[in-house]
Design goal:
The complex is a heterodimer of chains A (121) and B (109). In chain A, 0% of the residues lie in helices and 50% in strands. In chain A, the strands form two sheets. In chain A, strands 2, 4, 5, 6, 9, 10 and 11 form a seven-stranded mixed beta sheet that branches. A four-stranded antiparallel beta sheet of chain A has the order 1-3-8-7, with no helix packed on it. The radius of gyration of chain A is 14 Å and the shape is globular. Chain A contains no helices and eleven strands. Helices cover 0% and strands 52% of the residues of chain B. In chain B, the strands form two sheets. A six-stranded mixed beta sheet of chain B has the order 2-9-8-4-5-6, with no helix packed on it. A three-stranded antiparallel beta sheet of chain B has the order 1-3-7, with no helix packed on it. In chain B, strand 5 and strand 6 form a beta hairpin. The relative contact order of chain B is 0.33. Classes of the chains: A mainly beta (121), B mainly beta (109). At the A-B interface, strand 5 and strand 10 of A face strand 4 and strand 5 of B.
Chain lengths: 121, 109
Amino acid sequence: EVQLVQSGAEVKKPGESLRISCKGSGYSFTSYWIAWVRQMPGKGLECMGIIYPGDSDTRYSPSFQGQVTISADKSISAAYLQWSSLKASDTAMYYCARGLIGDRRGVFDVWGQGTMVTVSS
Amino acid sequence: ETVLTQSPGTLSLSPGEGATLSCRASQRISSSYLAWYQQKPGQAPRLLIYGASSRATGIPDRFSGSGSGTDFTLTISRLEPEDFAVYYCQQYGTSPPYTFGQGTKLEIK
């Protein structure tokens, strides 16, 4: 079974750092792009960026460039989303998702269960 | 950046009825790079349609997509109780930003 399993919910204080993870299984992890998608409470979906685990080629949406870091470790089939200094406005559900092949890499056919990040003093 | 505007914001219908959801882009979407997702409360989104009209694996044929250029439509022919959810359109190209519409909530009347 193809699946993406994300790390658990996090509660952090403003200014703290954080890395959340997404582990793929049931398919060739290095052959598909992985996206990170933000959903703020009660709001819609925003694609933050994508990474190709095969060579770590990473593309960010302009709104998120410089705000987060996306990385991957192909040896353990994991992708990561990282913050160096969290803000209260980073409070959201974060999903990882698998992109289809080729020019359909922006189509997300398999999703993780989501990681809720709460940033509060 | 392409802005997607979905209408209506909320659609109230009864099971068995048909639903038509609209997605309009601020600029032409090339090669019909338009997808539709369904999201139920507390769940991750689910891919329904890509390439404007291709159904994803396992999606019932009561879901269909159409359109090109700047105007796209998701049609659900006969609503089942499990179809009541929020629906998002999304445009994609070779690189981000892959923008989503703001969503249409399909609720039971």
